Amino acid sequence: MNNLYDVFIIGGGINGCGVARDTAGRGYSVYLAEKSDIASGTSSASSKLIHGGLRYLENYEFSLVRASLRERDILIKIAPHIISEMRFVLPHHNNLRPVWLLKLGMLLYDNLYSSKYIKRSSYIKIPFHESKSTLTEAFNKGFEYSDCITDDARLTVLNAADAKRLGGDINTRTMVKNMEQKKGVWNIEVMDTISNETKYVQAKVVVNATGPWVDSFLKNHSKQTKVDNIRLVKGSHIVVKKLFNHSYAYIFQNSDGRVFFAVPWENEFTFIGTTDVDFIGDLDNFSASDDEINYLCKSANQYFRSGISSNDVIKHWSGVRPLYHDGSTKAQKASRDYTIKVDSQDNKSALINIFGGKMTTYRQLSEEVTNKVGSILGEKKSPWTSDVHLPGGDFLLTEKTKIVDGLAKKYDYLDVDYIQRLFNSYGTRVEYILKNVSSIDDLGLHFGRDLYQVEVDYLMQEEFALYPEDVLERRTKLYLFLDYDKIENLDNYMQKKRKVRLKI
Predict the structure, then answer these.
(1) pLDDT digit string (tens) for 45-71?
(2) Which of 12, 163, 334, 420 would be a feasible disulfide site paired with 323, CB 3.0-4.6 Å?
(3) Looking at domain 4-42+154-228+336-377, which of 3.40.50.720, 3.30.160.270, 3.40.50.300, 3.50.50.60 is its CATH number?
(4) What is the value of pTM for the model shown?
């Protein structure tokens, strides 16, 4: 039998990686198993927003909104390179929610938590606003307010990377085959999905952070007889060529009671979403349906002067949200809050199950899970993640422009847009990536767009990337720009670089 770990975490999404970082930082020995890549599921398929949840106010979820707004401030403080303020426009639709209700919502949103970093809302007259050229003439008034945009997959990866730095054992492409509890210890069989080799690991506490698979995992690996804890809801987004040239995003109302977003993305695109559709099917094989794509196009066409159709959709993505089953009749009414349940089978070990949750509150959730670990195994250190930056985020938000300007001056032989992209992804870690670069030639092989060997090497060494999709879809968004030949060249390089995966 191999090492005995304090905590064994199943799932490399935002919750699992957040728990891994927090527990490792408090001095517990940690093993994380992810059957695919970090953030390969729901955690790379969100609306890319760190937000309070304006629409949650209609469901009277004031505590969730307040907690989310507080976490928004914490996250922009500890990860200012990948989280930034975005200003949203909410046009008033005459046939939907009245102005007084929207005004009340904005007032609550501003005052449930007083932000240190985010501007307050304001009433606007659209004919005199920058957004007027985008919207149809039917909209004359509305509101501005702020939330934050992020790269969801990168946020997840940074938590995993920091967990590794703190001593955590992070294992991707590693599947849990069997687990059983004997004499106060979990005995777990894991399999490397690349080599198909198996290994046995022991742990005192298991954290089930499998997201949409949480119930199926319990059904297959626990003694629970009633497994009906979550409601699976699919959310899809579409990507089109950018629909407007200004920096505002939009939140729109739809006649079915839902809201959806239109967000400027990667300089050249706009993404629109999300849907809320109850999901029944294969969690490893699904995508946006034709109905969802048409729904988003039709919804957007109520607002934008330039109409779009399914023919304009360049890319799309879908994720399945594991919402805690609260009995709601409509998917959009189901709470986005989380529930943590501890299944203690003796005094020394336990199975901690995570149900629900949202990207914005992952840190708070992770802290609560780690507190429960402490109550089982004994506390070692106090909560810490609200004050310690994620990798690359060790600077003040107000210093961002100054730092980028300094990097552009230092590396004046590199394109400024390239420097900006690197900084937006890696923050102060840019200096580490470029440590041996003194000319363009030192960047190494060029794989297309502005992807070079030095970045790929870094992602493979420091951020668990093994395959082109890990690099292009999750650690960067360069899949939007590279054709098949370029991707094939990258694949050939990574195969040689990867060689043979270390056996577990």
Answers:
(1) 999 999 999 989 988 899 999 999 999
(2) 334
(3) 3.50.50.60
(4) 0.95
